[in-house]
Design brief:
Layout: H1 7-18, H2 33-47, H3 57-66, H4 94-111, H5 129-146
Length: 149
């Protein structure tokens, strides 16, 4: 499984983000490309410990059983539900969101596994830094595929 803490995979993601443009169209889902970038940026904030959404009751009940979906080799399902606090519905500026996300990815990768949050994921619960690294790659890959890159 690809891991964002490996420079090769970080570079790959950054190149794919550069291939997006303001007119990139979604193959599924409701977000436009700028909203997707803002969503991914908000998810990075969770992994970096900048945002600490509370655990939901459903996650407390079943999250640990579903947890491997985040970091295994199987693609994430299209239109999978997400953390309510990172659902983006407002209009966003493409260039600003693209640069914010790129900088967060670079910072996350450079800070390394030891800088991952110890706070549990709002649905799945506690992750190791390796699980965060694989899951962040998988989440970004999922949304970049959503927009054809």
């Amino acid at each position: 499984m690809n891991n964002i803490f490996e420079v090769t995979y970080t570079d790959e993601l950054l190149n794919r983000i550069e291939n997006l443009n303001v007119n990139s169209q979604s193959e599924w889902g409701k977000m436009d490309v700028a909203q997707m970038l803002a969503h991914c940026s908000s998810f990075q904030d969770i992994a970096m410990g900048y945002s600490l959404p509370p655990r939901g009751w459903l996650g407390l009940l079943v999250g640990r059983f579903a947890k491997p979906i985040f970091y295994n080799d199987k693609p994430l399902p299209h239109n999978m539900s997400t953390i309510p606090s990172i659902v983006i519905t407002s209009k966003k500026e493409f260039e600003i969101e693209r640069e914010k996300l790129k900088q967060k990815i670079i910072t996350f990768q450079k800070n390394g596994p030891e800088a991952c949050t110890g706070h549990p994921h709002p649905f799945f619960g506690k992750f190791t830094s390796e699980q965060w690294g694989k899951g962040i790659y998988k989440h970004l890959d999922h949304h970049l595929k959503q927009f054809g890159v």
